Amino acid sequence: MLRLGRMIDKATFVVSLVSYGGVLAIMILNVADVFMTKSFVKPIQGAYEITEVLLLCTVMASFAYAQSQHAHINMGMVLKRFPRPVALAFYSLMGLLSAATAGAVGYAAVLQAQSAMDRNAVTSVLAVPMYPFYYIEAVAMFFFAAVLLYDAVLAFLAIRNDEYAEMVISTWA
User: Can you tell me the distance from the alpha carbon of 34 to that of 32, in angstroms, rounded to the nearest whole number?
Assistant: First the structure.
């Protein structure tokens, strides 16, 4: 189980590189746009819509990595008040519900990408196709669902395993 966790951590790091690249691209683009606007009164055409689609990918790609690093807010403060098996059962249930939700969002993103491809949906200024960005969102959300599912299964196993219990409970703030 722990080997699977290490593999998931590596995979989420790769997905997080999309997020890092997106943030870097957004920063460079906006600095260049402001510079061009203030210095030459000639803004970069389509800078706003490029920022929009990059932000979509950047935010979605950061979810899985944040979950693998246990950086998301959770209910640990409340759960610590329950007996350990009950707290771990609730934590596991919350993880399963969250994984189902993230999977549903990923599936919806696939449907949205297919719809955008069928309609030839493009951005308004640069006419960049929208569907690749929706597919990136879908992949990122499926990775997020996988991390949530792994955490839920680990919490479920922790009900009967003290080593796993210490690992899970140590992530609660």
Answer: 6
Asked if 33 contacts 47 with a C-beta cutoff of 8 angstroms, the reply is: yes
Q: How far apart are CA 150 and CA 45, in angstroms?
A: 43
Dihedral sign from CA coordinates of 100, 103, 105, 111: negative
3-state secondary structure 133-149: HHHHHHHHHHHHHHHHH
The structure tokens 């996988």 sit at: 146
CA distance 10 to 172: 22
What are the residues facing 129 on neighbouring strands? 122
User: What digits encode the pLDDT tens for the residues 94-148?
Assistant: 999 999 999 999 999 999 999 999 999 999 999 999 999 999 999 999 999 999 9
**0.70 cut: is pTM over it?**
yes
The total number of residues written for the chain in this structure: 173
Which residue segment(s) compose the domain that 47 sits in?
2-170
Structurally, how many domains does the chain consist of?
A: 1
What's at 133, amino acid-wise? F
The pLDDT of residue 2 is 79
Q: What is the pLDDT of residue 136?
A: 94
